[in-house]
Amino acid sequence: xxxxxxxxxxxxxWFRSVDLISITLIIFLMILGLLFVTTASPNVAxxxxxxxxxxxxxxxxxxxxxxxxxxxxxxxxxxxxxxxxYIGFTASIILITILLLxxxxxxxxxxxxxxxxxxxxxxxxLKPFTIIIFSIxxxxxxxxxxxxxxxxxKNIAFLLLLFISSLILAxxxxxxxxxxxxxxxxxxxxxxxxxxxxxxxSFITLLIAILAYLNLAHVKYRVDSFLSPNTTHFQxxxxxxxxxxxxxxxxxxxxxxxxxxxxxxxxxxxxPVIAEEYGALVCIFLVCILLVIFFRGIININNxxxxxxxxxxxxxxxxxxxxxxxxxxxxxxxIPTTGVTFPFLSYGGSSIISxxxxxxxxxxxxKKKFKEKGLIYEN
Length: 379
Fold this sequence. Notes:
- This protein has one domain (about 20-365).
- Helices cover about 70% and strands about 5% of the residues.
- It has 14 helices and six strands.
- The protein has helices at about 5-15, 20-45, 55-75, 80-100, 120-140, 155-170, 175-190, 195-215, 215-225, 235-245, 270-280, 280-300, 305-330, 350-365, and strands at about 115, 120, 145, 150, 370, 375.
- It has a two-stranded antiparallel sheet with strand order 1-2.
- Helix 3 packs parallel to helix 14 (about 350-365), helix 6 runs antiparallel to helix 7 (about 175-190) and helix 13 (about 305-330) packs antiparallel against helix 14.
């Protein structure tokens, strides 16, 4: 069989096994993201003295690579995902460490690494690989001897969570710490919960959160501002006005005003821009798409007897849905402000490419078995 026939056969098997409904919905979200950023970003670019197409061109570029990596990761076998996650996790940890040592600060945070003229956020790429590593550890059957102590996989996973948290909080990136903890807990519940260990983890996490509040000025400011009835947050107040003025059907594409007033209307506050221009019905429709993708993934993986696959998929899907709901909750004044983008709809190079990797992993893990010439093929 020649090379062309091999590739054709490989992609035919992929096409028959992958969840076509989910991949279609994800691509649809990407296309909508191109539309929303196109209408939201020109005024932001002008506010920053940039060409009005600056963010649009970059977002098209990032979206292409997000789709590319989603397809690539969906092609991996389970063993392939594990191997690439070891590499990706190690590389991300090294880059974050280098970043903390040499990089300057951006918006009060040491998160961005400049390479070949491009800035990217290594911690964004750490998330999907960490979820896979957590799943490996949480499903270990045998104890591991570490520094003379016999530890089970759950203990090691928690120690790894603490190590990663220390790096993330050093940037500082409190929102990612919260997201990682929630993802870890979803995986821990899925792998099988020990009540005492759960209470211990919760206590340690609460302690870290309190210390972050006391020692990180931006965390204290945002929490205090949220709790104080006399303090207003300009971007959040404008978001609430946008939700109200948009109504059910919106003002029409490009007719909104919120994007003229806030600098993050194309990123962290893209959802109120959508609400103002396209209306509440479109927002509800978008939430329904998110929920369909989430529950299709859960239903598809529920048919698997592989605990590693189940734990990984639950963690990845939790990351996907939590990011979306945190983004919406901030703009609705339900939680303190934090810099979390809306999956596939917000502008953001590292975040959208990382989310492409996340959903590619989900598509890989949820590939279904099929028969061909009497043989059963599975991931």
